[in-house]
């Protein structure tokens, strides 16, 4: 049966996203206030995908919960969990009657400690996932083209190094049983009207630029992009929006490199704690 999604938005200023999504998808958009658990996109209904966008305020990190609720076990995946909000996430998973099978990271985070270890200690059978290129510890290591299956759905792995060497983007699949429009969880590689810094952890501005253009901007323009962070209250964007309006990545690669080399960013306050803990 073809998936039909209703996207619920909390932020009125995100109506610009709807204007860049084709008319059939716009009909599935409605504006609502966020729930107690969620900030921004709160759910996808009308199909077999359950979706939640969760927020950790100290590091402005988004965690994403996806589950196939049409499957008898209601298998679920948690993307970029944070240790401080792991209990909140697990309570939500329990309330919704889901079975968490994977806790995945888009990269080795420098601004918070991942919640995967804490989650694994509280729920048996959960497997931690990260890219092999990250050189971090995990139960499952993924590479380009690998698929993380949960029920009839899956996340495809696309390598997007540049912020760190191990960054990946997780993209929902194509097909009648998959979310439409597609969804991409971009980590720190591509932010809403921005991108991750490239001045530490083996970062490279040129590599990040090439990653975005080859692995993310090649997706359909109505693909919904969900970053690991936002610092201005934004919740979601699209490929089409970022191609037009991203003040860094809409430029040519030489201009982009110049922008990134002159950001003069402060040393991340959690990096000396978070990176060793996340390795």
Describe this entry's structure for a reader.
With 279 residues, this protein is of the alpha/beta class. Helices cover 22% and strands 27% of the residues. The protein has 8 helices and 17 strands. The strands form 4 sheets. Strands 4-5-6-7-8-9 form a 6-stranded mixed β-sheet, covered by helices on one side. The longest helix is centred in the C-terminal third of the chain and has 12 residues, at 205-216. Residues 1-46 have low confidence and may be disordered. Residues 60-229 form the Metallo-beta-lactamase domain. Its EC number is 1.13.11.18. InterPro entries: Metallo-B-lactamas, Mito_Persulfide_Diox, POD-like_MBL-fold, RibonucZ/Hydroxyglut_hydro. It is an enzyme of class 1 (oxidoreductase).
Largest sheet: 6 strands, mixed
- Would you list the SSEs in sequence order as H and E? EHHEEEEEHEHEEEEEEEEHEEHHH
> According to CATH, what is the topology?
Metallo-beta-lactamase, Chain A
- Write down how many β-strands occur, each being a DSSP E stretch of 2 or more residues: 17
End-to-end CA span: 41 Å
User: Which structural class fits the helix and strand makeup?
Assistant: alpha/beta
Low-confidence stretches: 1-46
How much of the sequence lies in strands comes to 25-35%
Strand arrangement within the widest β-sheet reads 4-5-6-7-8-9
Radius of gyration: 17 Å
CATH superfamily: Ribonuclease Z/Hydroxyacylglutathione hydrolase-like
Helicity level: 10-25%
Mean of residue pLDDT? 84
Number of helices: 8
Coarse morphology = globular
- The CATH class is Alpha Beta
């Amino acid at each position: 049966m073809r998936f039909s999604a209703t996207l619920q938005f909390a932020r009125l200023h995100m109506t610009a996203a709807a204007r860049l999504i084709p008319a059939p998808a716009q009909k599935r958009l409605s504006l609502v206030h966020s729930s107690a658990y969620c900030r921004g996109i709160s759910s996808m209904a009308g199909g077999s995908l359950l979706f939640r966008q969760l927020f950790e305020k100290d590091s402005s990190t988004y965690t994403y919960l996806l589950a196939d609720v049409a499957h008898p076990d209601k298998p679920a995946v948690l993307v970029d969990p944070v240790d401080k909000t792991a209990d909140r996430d697990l309570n939500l998973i329990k309330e919704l009657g889901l079975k968490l099978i994977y806790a995945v990271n888009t990269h080795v985070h420098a601004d918070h400690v991942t919640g995967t270890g804490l989650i694994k200690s509280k729920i048996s059978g959960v497997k931690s996932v990260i890219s092999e290129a990250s050189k971090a510890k995990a139960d499952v290591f993924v590479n380009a083209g690998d698929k993380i299956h949960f029920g009839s759905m899956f996340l495809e792995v696309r390598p997007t190094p540049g912020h760190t060497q191990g960054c990946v983007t997780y993209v929902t699949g194509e097909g009648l049983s998959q979310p439409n429009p597609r969804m991409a969880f971009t980590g720190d590689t591509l932010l809403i009207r921005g991108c991750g810094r490239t001045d530490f952890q083996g970062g490279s501005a040129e590599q990040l630029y090439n990653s975005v253009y080859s692995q993310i901007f090649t997706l359909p323009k109505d693909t919904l992009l969900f970053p690991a962070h936002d610092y201005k209250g934004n919740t979601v964007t699209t490929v089409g929006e970022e191609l037009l309006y991203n003040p860094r990545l809409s430029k040519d690669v030489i201009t982009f490199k110049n922008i990134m080399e002159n950001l003069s960013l402060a040393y991340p306050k959690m990096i000396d704690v978070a990176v060793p803990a996340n390795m």
